[in-house]
């Protein structure tokens, strides 16, 4: 590692660490109100307790499952529809106004309706995540396919690729980088929506854990929930980065 | 040299070559082909017969519709009127494969998979694909780069892959659209020699487009000079050089200069006309 890279690494890890130390110091010295800002050590202790009792894992598992199911339910139709719209003018013309009109509606505002339709069970949470994942994946897949250089389509046509072969050998790989960017955005949106959905009408999940902690005024537990959500987001970002390296090897050596 | 001059002097124009090339039935017969984009006639009534195994080069100023002509031959554009007849081949082989202008190999496929593309689309077995692709990659010096992706290759190597892709598909007709225009002179020279070598082994019918007179003379059996606008056939010339050819030694032959000059005479006014056209369009 070069000296500059080492410095960057130190700075990247050092700045949050310094902040935590300052926070700890301020809490211990009584400079801040620990009812609202409990010391990081207190949050860690609570996290340990919640983990030991299994409560944290039950909730984490519930949230991750909903996130995963919602991702599949929303992501796969979005991928198919987006690529179809990118390839075919009629499909594009048919779905564009629908997408443009429904995309700006805040998904959280639709939640009461979703609860009404899908009930208090798992389905309503999964649908919320699915809605969050659907739009970014759809929009990016469509734009990704539409922006593939025409020459590649001509090549496929000249070499007599069938529709399915064109899909498999040109449309999907050509649009993969923007699709993965859409997946990343979609997962972020899904994480926001699952936390909201679990606060209302759920009895498990990280969102539920935070909401429940508010009701019993357990501030440390609320912070544990926030930390866990942040960690999930971070982990998802790492996973999608790795996925990108695996799925888009032709870009790996470029940087 | 006398003989070569004699050949030059009998070099035929469009009208007489049709009569002279009668014996073998043509591989490609283009008749009164017209392609309009709106009111713009990119191709305006071109007729030509191309013999089986012939290396036919079309040279013309940029924007003269030569690419349009090739794209019609490739089936990528529909003609407005006129016909193209291509003699059928023995079963199973594709009619044509195109080498496109500029970067056209898939960035997401390895060198090998790019070269194998046409065969893979035709669902050939892995063994058959290897049997066809490997020798081509070997003769073009690409075999040891077979697992690389295009961004790891130079421009010259990428264009080699594109040529391998077309040859590997084993088409009846090879269509080449200024495949070397983005390369430097030295790379171009190497690829000319390579292309001629592979072509002489396979004896495919080639329709090759270029704006370079030198390239046309180096590669062709016959050369069609196209007019600027609308795109018509101005003359069809027989290349005085025989086969096999050495692309460097060729240039030392006195006939070379004379033949290049002759093509330039046809081309000069067309290039001027094309420039004027551009200026008028700019002012309008």
From TrEMBL, chain A:
Domain called ABC transmembrane type-1: residue spans: 60-240
Q: What does this protein do?
A: Probably part of an ABC transporter complex. Probably responsible for the translocation of the substrate across the membrane.
**One biological-process term from Gene Ontology?**
alkanesulfonate transmembrane transport
Gene3D superfamilies xref list: MetI-like
| Record localization | Cell membrane
Which CDD domains does the entry link to?
TM_PBP2 (cd06261)
This protein's name:
ABC transporter permease
Q: How does it sit in the membrane?
A: Multi-pass membrane protein
Automatic annotation (TrEMBL), chain B:
Q: Provide the ABC transporter domain boundaries.
A: 28-253
Gene3D superfamilies in the cross-refs: P-loop containing nucleotide triphosphate hydrolases
Specify whether ATP-binding is a keyword of the entry. Answer: yes
Instruction: Look up the domain of life of the source.
Output: Bacteria
- Which GO molecular-function terms appear in the entry? ATP binding; ATP hydrolysis activity
| Name listed for the protein in its UniProt record | ABC transporter ATP-binding protein
Q: Which InterPro entries match?
A: AAA+_ATPase (IPR003593), ABC_transporter-like_ATP-bd (IPR003439), ABC_transporter-like_CS (IPR017871), ABC_transporter_ATP-bind (IPR050166), P-loop_NTPase (IPR027417)
Q: Which PANTHER family match?
A: ALIPHATIC SULFONATES IMPORT ATP-BINDING PROTEIN SSUB, TAURINE IMPORT ATP-BINDING PROTEIN-RELATED
Enumerate the CDD domains for this protein: ABC_NrtD_SsuB_transporters
Give the originating organism. Xanthobacter tagetidis
The UniProt keywords, alphabetically, are: ATP-binding, Nucleotide-binding, Transport
Would you identify the family this protein belongs to, as annotated? Answer: Belongs to the ABC transporter superfamily.
Q: What is the lineage of its organism?
A: Bacteria, Pseudomonadati, Pseudomonadota, Alphaproteobacteria, Hyphomicrobiales
